[in-house]
Amino acid sequence: MTDLATAQQALVAALVAGGELPEGFDPAAVLATKTALRRKRAGEVAARWPFLAASYGNDWPRLFAAWAESRPPQGSLRDGWDFARSMGTALPPLAREELDAREREYTYDGTAPPTPRPRSLWSRLRRR
């Protein structure tokens, strides 16, 4: 890997995964970019998980950003799922209902992307 590629990889890790800031980059500019990226990510998760985000009100962007600080993005569906699961018993009731609904519809082990659960024969017959 070239020096440029190594520096770029380190910069991306610093921006989205809590990595160390590589030499030669302006810390204030990187901090501003990190903040903007986490805010954008929180908005994307809120669009995919509206009740989760609404359950935390104005605290949502701050709480999600703190949680996401050292976690690389996995996509809004997985990020929301992982955040909700990480809250455990502190998850608000409306967010718990949303998580429970997702877990009825999809299977997700926390590592591989979620996949739709097969519907029962009864469900398939009722839809015809």
What does this entry look like structurally?
The structure is a single chain. The protein is mostly helical and 128 residues long. It has one domain (3-126). The chain contains 7 helices and 2 strands, in the order ααααααββα. It has a two-stranded antiparallel sheet. Strand 1 (106-107) and strand 2 form a beta hairpin. Helix 2 (27-48) crosses helix 3 (50-56) and helix 2 (27-48) crosses helix 4. The protein is elongated.
Structure at a glance:
By secondary structure, the chain is mainly alpha-helical.
In the sheet with the most strands, the strands line up as 1-2
Question: What's the story with the biggest beta sheet?
Answer: 2 strands, antiparallel
Q: Uncertain regions: pLDDT < 50 for 5+ in a row?
A: none
SS element count, helices? 7
Structural class: mainly alpha
Q: What's the pLDDT, averaged over the residues?
A: 92
Radius of gyration: 18 Å
Task: List how many beta strands DSSP finds.
Answer: 2
Share of helix, binned: 55-70%
SSE string, helix = H, strand = E? Answer: HHHHHHEEH
Overall structural domain count? 1
Bin the strand percentage: under 5%
Biased composition (Low complexity): 118-128
Protein name: SCO6045-like C-terminal domain-containing protein
Domain SCO6045-like C-terminal: 5-87
Organism: Dactylosporangium matsuzakiense
